[in-house]
Amino acid sequence: MIGIVDYNMGNLASVQNAFAKLGAKTAIESNPEKFKDYDKLILPGVGAFADAMEHLRERNMIQPIKDYAATSKPILGICLGMQLLFESSEEFGDSEGLGLIKGKVVAFDTSKFSEPLKVPHMGWNKMFTKNHPLFNNLDEEHYLYFVHSYHAVCDNEEDIIGKTVYGYEFASAVAHENIMGIQPHPEKSHKNGLKILENFINL
């Protein structure tokens, strides 16, 4: 059974529907005391980093998520959920994250270009991936759907399992042991996204 964390900051229905297409059993979970009962956990997210952390704090979810991550059970952050895995974000001022992956979340640097990058980064883009179970039976480069204005910077290069170029290269998928994150929305990325979710189910 896969738990989808409900902290009022994610498009939960579309994530759950994507797993349903794959025949996976999921539950939208708002009770942090029950997180430990799931075989796998999804941390979705849409919106601002600081707001998301405040919602998690108000619902007493931060420590249960950290406790879950300390087990061998897989946890996957999607979009903002991936960013929350990091130590901090500069979105609307410095905000502390879950600290499960070393690094920070920064704004796209638009100053490097004669024509500024359009932000948010929105639409289909390629991800170039390392050999990792999340990407089994996918090409080393494949298109996925992105919507974001900030991106992660990892302290440890080995934690980066996927990269995307939007003006410049940035980390678009990360993994540290059982803790994984993906910046694009697999639930909106058709067959490639469904394959990533299927691979997560099979971990």
General description of the model:
The protein has helices spanning 12-21, 49-58, 62-69, 80-84, 190-201; strands spanning 2-5, 26-29, 40-43, 75-78, 86-89, 95-96, 101-107, 121-129, 141-148, 150-154, 160-166, 168-176, 179-182. A 9-stranded mixed beta sheet has the order 2-1-3-4-13-12-11-8-9. A 4-stranded mixed beta sheet has the order 6-5-7-10. It has one domain: Rossmann fold (3-Layer(aba) Sandwich). It is 22% helix and 35% strand. The radius of gyration is 16 Å and the shape is globular. With 203 residues, it is of the alpha/beta class. Strand 12 (168-176) and strand 13 form a beta hairpin. The chain has 5 helices and 13 strands.
| Percent range of helical residues | 10-25%
- Determine the strand fraction and express it as a percent band: 25-35%
| Poorly predicted spans | none
- Give the termini distance in whole angstroms: 13 Å
What's the helix-strand series? EHEEHHEHEEEEEEEEEH
Q: From the helix content, strand content and strand pairing, which structural class follows?
A: alpha/beta
Total beta strands: 13
What value does the Rg take, in angstroms? 16 Å
The biggest sheet amounts to: 9 strands, mixed
Report the principal-axis shape: globular
What's the CATH first level?
A: Alpha Beta
What's the structural domain tally? 1
Order of the strands making up the biggest sheet: 2-1-3-4-13-12-11-8-9
Supply the CATH architecture.
3-Layer(aba) Sandwich
Which whole number gives the mean pLDDT? 95
DSSP summary: helix tally: 5
Q: What is the name of the CATH topology? A: Rossmann fold
- Name the CATH superfamily classification: Class I glutamine amidotransferase (GATase) domain
